[in-house]
Amino acid sequence: SDSPCCHDREYCRMLIKRGIAVSPGVAIGPAMVFGTESFRIPQQFISANVIDIELARFHAALDATCEEISLNEQLARERLGDQYAAIFSAHLLLARDQQLVSQIEQRIRRQNSPEFAASQVLRQYAKRMRDLGGQYLAERSLDINDLEKRLLRHLLGERREELSNLTAPVLVLANNLTPSETANLDRKFVLGFATEVGGHTSHTAILAGALELPAVVGIGKFLDDVSGCQTIIIDGSHGVVIIEPDTETLAKYRNSEARFRSHERRLQSLRSVPCETKDGVPIKLMGNIEFPAEAEPCRDKGASGIGLYRTEFLYLESNREPTEDDHYKAYCQVLKAFPDQPVVIRTLDLGSDKMPGALRAAYPDSVNPALSIRSIRLSLQHLELFKTQLRAVLRAAVLGDLRIMFPLISTLLEFRQAKMVLSDVVEDLEEQGIPFRRDIMVGMMVEVPAAAIMAEEFAREVDFFSLGTNDLIQYTLAVDRADQAVADLYRSGDPSILGLIRVVVEAGERNNIPVSVCGQMSSDPMFIPLLIGLGLRQISVTPHAIPELKEVIRNLTIERAVAIAERASSLEVARDVENYLWGELKKLCPESMQLD
Ligand code: PEP
Ligand code: MG
Fold first, then answer.
1. Would you state the pLDDT for residue 550?
2. β-strands 26-34, 15-18: how paired?
3. Which residues surround ligand 1 with Cβ inside 6 Å?
4. ∠ CA 549-554-555, rounded to 5°
5. In this predicted structure, what is the pLDDT of residue 7?
6. Among 381, 371, 369, 439, which Cα is nearest to 414's?
């Protein structure tokens, strides 16, 4: 996935990396390599009249670095013995290597800042060593990385700018960002991000959409080829990251950034037209949100309600456990944007990749966190935490059409248990004379294959279903949704998934309960004709996708949708299903497709 540039090797180092496109748009700016540096290299160039000063600053930092390493060497010798001290002796030799030092000096003379010069030269050294192959050299390249970090720490000293404390725009490049780290990104300064790991529907990817940050995940190893402050392009629509673009490429992307904006504006004009098929069948298009602040912009995109509020982000955004009042305020804020429309509160879906620090200690080493204590299982083990949330939901429900949805239900017993806790909370509120709403709708996510298979039985007890295809695909195909190593196997178009969706929709129809889809699959325009053809009339999606999906819906008749779903269901492999759906989408919306 690597395409080096063809021009002058010294001055043009353009590199193109490909990953998974998870949040559209183009971002251009300086790199901040999170995790290795986790601080920003403040500038790439210095003016000619400070070259001597900067050279002196570099040597002072190098001396301080060497002193620090010597100290470590001494300590290691005293406490651990000679063979451990040798590690630091090697670092010291490297730091004093004449050739290396003179290359950094040369770059400073060419007006690179010492931080940038040191980082570039050391990274090139490390890369060359790795490229030679072999375990020994790969380990030596780690020594060089270590030296780089030490040197940068000394060079930056007080001026170190950390991710949590930015003062200028950056593109964040990281091996991985956890959902909490992503939720805490400073939107004022972070223009986009790219990660080595991650899959189509990892929560980090979903958050990128919520924050409207162009993002690419699952690129594979690439951080060693970048250093802080290099210019980067992140093309979140096509899953491309370009390091040190040449002028021609930069111009092309500035242009496509502008075209993306004008396409968005055209779609935005659809905001006030009804969401219905060409033959007049209304389709309820709702939004998925992670933060209460998203509710208002989501309504402005044309959503007719919130089909999924991932409330666990109340836990992931801050270090302390949210109180009943925190929950209550968040729900009221969402209801304020949607006073007359449904707002589905999904109860805490903690666990797996979304385990807050406070709970992590209780579940230290799950063999497989995705199959362990998560979601409703966790809520049922922490009743106080669960009840705090349910109290807030029932109280806020006085103000609007709030509904409750339990995540990851796998058996009927589990659903009944959750409902019992809800009845306890009802009783408590009643006893305490606190105003609340009793006749609240209680539904469940269908995201475990067992629940889909048992949909008929569930449909007699629940008020609604919402298909969580993100997890349903993960558990049906046995493919971790966040693992780029198996990203090619994660297929929404797999016939098994189409089959399960059909089972759930039909059970809903027979028992007269509403069924919606809220997994990422429904945010992809390609799957809209299929889902409507399978009988779905309610779809909850990532807010920025709403205008585009509305356009697809308005170009579609039910008859055509049914024909598309039938043909798709007759195909035997995911690739054929997806190719077919893609072809149909191009026919339906030729104008939008021109962008690609
Ligand atoms: C899903 O699994 O499809 C879903 C919508 O929930 P989440 O992505 O939060 O797991
Ligand atoms: Mg889920």
1. 96
2. unpaired
3. 206, 308, 310, 349, 447, 468-471, 518-519
4. 100
5. 42
6. 381
